[in-house]
Structures are given as structure tokens and as C-alpha cells.
Amino acid sequence: xxxxxxxxxxxxxxxxxxxxxxxxxxxxxxxxxxxxxxxxxxxxxxxxxxxxxxxxxxxxxxxxxxxxxxxxxxxxxxxxxxxxxxxxxxxxxxxxx
Length: 97
Fold this sequence. Notes:
Layout: H1 14-18, H2 24-41, H3 46-52, H4 57-64, H5 72-82
């Protein structure tokens, strides 16, 4: 089931309003996949990564499964533990007119 990304502007979905082709779940799934790949490449168990990032195993499991309601601060802790970064860029640059 895909979550409808509604804004405060009269129920217009964010993706349509901005011309974005990717959904929130796709972005979260990409982050989850990158975290899992980096963990496996580093030969770490989920328990190892939880210890290194001062989070719990349940959090690592939820993150790797793309749970949408995880805490951003903890995600950053996991990324730092894996030597990854999160880049934020303007969607305006990616939208063709």
C-alpha cells in the first residue's frame, strides 16, 4: 500500500505539486538498502551495528525494512557508524520544465 503524501494545500499530493517522480517510500527504501549493503560489506551483524551506533537491534531491523516512522537522529547515528552520509539536494534542479 502506497502512502498518499498530502500537503496542507487543499490535499494536493506533494509529488504532483513538485513534479517529483519518486515517492516517499522509494526514498526510504533506497536508504534502507544502502544501509543493509554497507552493513553486510563491513561484515557486521545487525546486533554489531546496533552497538556501534548506540541504537537497538529492533531499530536496525526496522531501518533495513524501510519503516517510515523511524527517528532521523538515530538514522544519522547509523550512517555515521557505517561511514555513510546523507545528502539533501533541491528537487527544483531535478525537475525539467
